[in-house]
C-alpha cells in the first residue's frame, strides 16, 4: 500500500475510500484560528464597521480598535480655575 500511495495516489485514495465503512461520516468543521463562531462574528462586525479595514492588516485593525477603546475610556481632566480672574 505504501508503494501504491507513493506511485499512484489516486489509486491509493480510491482503495482507501472503499475500505471505510459506509456508515462512517466525516465532518469538517471550519475553524477560525481557535476562535469560536461567536468570537469570529464579533471580529467580522468590528471589521465591517471600521473605515478601510479590508485594506489594512489584521494587526493594524486590532491596534486601531485597541487605541479607540482606550481613548473612549480615558477620563478627560478639566482645568480648575483658581481665583476670580483666572
N-C termini distance: 91 Å
State mean pLDDT (0 to 100 scale). 80
Classification by helices and strands = mainly alpha
Low-confidence region ranges: none
Given the structure, what is the number of helices?
4
Order of helices and strands: HHHH
The helix fraction, in percent, is 40-55%
- Number of extended strands: 0
Taking all Cα atoms into account, the compactness measure Rg is 28 Å
Query: What spatial form do the alpha-carbon principal axes imply?
Result: rod-shaped
Assembly of the depicted chains: single chain
Beta-strand portion reads under 5%
Largest sheet: none
Structural account:
- This protein is mainly α.
- It has a domain at 35-73.
- 53% of the residues lie in helices and 0% in strands.
- It has 4 helices and no strands.
- The mean pLDDT is 80.
Short description:
With 86 residues, the protein is mostly helical.
Features:
single chain, 86 residues, mainly alpha, 53% helix
Write the layout of secondary structure elements.
Blueprint: H1 2-7, H2 9-19, H3 37-49, H4 58-73
Amino acid at each position: 500500500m505504501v508503494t501504491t500511495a507513493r506511485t499512484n495516489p489516486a489509486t491509493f485514495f480510491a482503495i482507501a475510500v472503499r475500505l471505510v465503512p459506509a456508515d462512517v461520516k466525516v465532518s469538517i468543521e471550519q475553524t477560525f484560528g481557535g476562535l469560536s463562531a461567536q468570537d469570529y462574528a464579533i471580529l467580522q462586525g468590528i471589521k465591517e464597521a471600521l473605515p478601510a479595514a479590508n485594506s489594512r492588516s489584521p494587526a493594524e485593525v486590532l491596534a486601531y480598535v485597541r487605541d479607540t477603546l482606550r481613548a473612549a475610556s480615558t477620563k478627560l481632566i478639566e482645568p480648575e480655575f483658581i481665583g476670580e480672574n483666572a
